[in-house]
Amino acid sequence: MTELVRTADSGTLEEGPPRDGLRHGVWSFRTAEGRVWREGTYEHGRRSGVWKTWHPNGQLDEEVRYTGGKMNGPYSSRHANGLLNESGAHADGRRIGTWRRFDPSAELVEEWAYDDTGSLHGRYLARNQTTGHWNKRRFARGELELSRSEREPLAERLRQDGSAEFLGRLLPTAEGAAPLLRTLIADHLLDLLQDPWLEAELERDPHAGRVAERTLRGESRIAR
Fold first, then answer.
1. Which of 59, 98, 116, 186 is most buried, most CB within 10 Å of its CB?
2. How many domains, the chain?
3. 34 φ, ψ to 5°?
4. What are phi and psi of 43, to 5 degrees?
């Protein structure tokens, strides 16, 4: 027996066999036009084995491995031209080990690593796609390491300014860097600032990187 589930908002179709009221076996996910864009196996309602997604042009996009409903094992994603986009590994649903990201011409643009708890740890490299310069940072158990020469001027300027306005002037220096590096810079700076507006923004959207992206685009109060 096959079960069909059509989502009301987009009209996409999910199709596969149930067992005892749970999804069990191979399920396919189709767009409203009928194109299969994701496929994978459930075991008693939990994702299992290799799950794949495809780009609209039919090229393989993601390959993710699951055990007991959690991501486990090698991970990869590809650009629409078939070349590798991102590679890494998961353990018990967490990112672990070394991850790499490539541009559509297969040039390495980012490399970073996680410890066994899923926290950023060790060397982080990101190539500025405008200048070609490699930005190099280090993390320790999820915390960005700043040298004394970096920390002291930043702390002093924050004391002098005492407002989020300083962040608006500083964040644009991160433009042109790889997206993850911009987010990490923003996360660290937002942690240092004490500002009621930022607190309200982060309450509404707890992902500091998204708040930073809105700042860079001039959509937030900081940029005005």
1. 186
2. 2
3. 100, 0
4. -125, 110
**Which two tokens mark 6?**
């059509």
Chain position carrying tokens 């199709």: 15
CB 157 within 8 A of CB 173: no
Q: What is the pTM of this model?
A: 0.67
* DSSP codes of every residue in 32-80: TTS-EEEEEEEETTEEEEEEEEE-TTS-EEEEEEEETTEEEEEEEEE-T
Question: Is the same domain home to 113 and 178?
Answer: no
Last residue of a domain, one of 110, 145, 180: 145
Q: Is the pLDDT of residue 175 over 80?
A: no
**Which helix H or strand E contains 191, and what residues bound it?**
helix 179-192
Domain containing residue 117: 69-145
- With tokens 């994702």, the residue in question is 47
The DSSP code sequence of 94-149 is EEEEEEEEE-TTS-EEEEEEE-TTS-B-EEEEEE-TTT-PEEEEEEETTEEP--HH
Say yes or no: 89 and 141 in one domain. Answer: yes
- Encoded amino acid at 117, one letter: T
Residue 94 resides in a domain: yes
Q: Determine the 3-state secondary structure of 196 from DSSP.
A: helix
